[in-house]
Design a protein that fits this description.
alpha/beta; P5CR-like_CS; about 50% helix; amino-acid biosynthesis; single chain; about 15% strand; ProC C-terminal domain-like fold; cytoplasm; Rossmann fold; eight-stranded mixed beta sheet
Length: about 280
């Protein structure tokens, strides 16, 4: 940890599943969590997967029913990582135990800041976040939106927390659902592309192992090149697409298929579902 970077306060991750666990591991690796981290999971088996991490206290709720309350009471930042349907019950459980000044951060899709604020003590600083799965390898992008009582200091702390697993974009809450259709669901779009490209390679005579290597490393390499370049994707694409060459023919097929319209419809469908979740559908 750099000497000029302030450490984070004690952190509680309530429901440290895939996403909560990824963020937890990123914070541990950063060295910023000098106040320690406490994580809860329902089962002993899940709790044991985090128990060996440096500075982490991992609680299995099946053997410690008061684990969520105790974790919340000890933390300056409380991450809510349970499934959306479980959020209300969890907030009701921990509300009386929250430490004064604690910041509560939602990882739950479709649950509004207003819902959190209505179930927590008056004046609680609440932020809503939308991380994505590349956070598991420190390459995530997280959208964060601040509630009415989250001041600049609270936002800065939460931003630094999520920066341990990638980039952070601050948006008003009304944009969180739209953001989820791009960066939240986006990795699945990329995985689908790699999946389909693999099948195309198999169709051209490559073994499944070779096809997977060709498709996956092409995606990984292209992403790394994009990350390293100051140029936008359109310019990078043009550099690969020689006039009258093979790539130009392939790109023409994709453009004729109106890939832009397909992605527009896909993200619109994701947004409609996010809105349905927020409405309780």
């Amino acid at each position: 940890m750099s000497a000029d970077v302030d450490p984070l306060p004690r952190i509680a991750v309530l429901g440290a599943g895939s996403m909560g666990g990824a963020i937890l591991e990123g914070v541990v690796a950063s060295g910023l969590a000098t106040g320690g981290i406490v994580a809860t999971n329902r089962s002993v088996a899940k709790a044991e997967t985090l128990a060996g991490l440096d500075g982490v206290t991992s609680i299995a709720l099946e053997v410690d029913e008061g684990g969520n309350r105790a974790a919340a009471a000890s933390a300056g930042i409380v991450l809510i990582g349970v499934k959306p349907a479980m959020v209300r019950d969890l907030l009701g459980e921990i509300a009386p135990s929250l430490a004064p000044g604690a910041i509560v951060v939602s990882l739950a899709a479709g649950v509004t800041i207003a819902t959190f604020e209505s179930l927590l003590p008056e004046g609680t600083a609440v932020l809503r976040s939308m991380p994505n799965t590349p956070a598991l390898v420190g390459k995530g992008v997280t959208g964060i939106a601040a509630g009415a009582h989250a001041d600049a200091g609270a936002v800065s702390l939460v931003r630094r927390l999520f920066e341990t697993v990638g980039a952070v974009v601050e948006v008003p809450e009304e944009q969180i659902d739209a953001l989820s259709t791009i960066s939240g669901s986006g990795p699945a779009y990329v995985f689908l592309f790699a999946e389909v490209l693999t099948e195309a390679a198999i169709g051209k005579g490559f073994s499944r192992e070779q096809a997977r290597l060709l498709a996956e490393q092409t995606v990984v390499g292209a992403a790394a090149l994009m990350d390293a370049s100051p140029d936008d994707p359109a310019e990078l694409r043009r550099r690969v697409t020689s006039p009258n060459g093979t790539t130009e023919r392939a790109i023409a097929v994709l453009q004729d298929a109106r890939l832009d319209e397909v992605l527009g419809r896909a993200t619109d469908a994701a947004l409609r579902r996010a809105q349905e979740l927020a409405a309780g559908a």
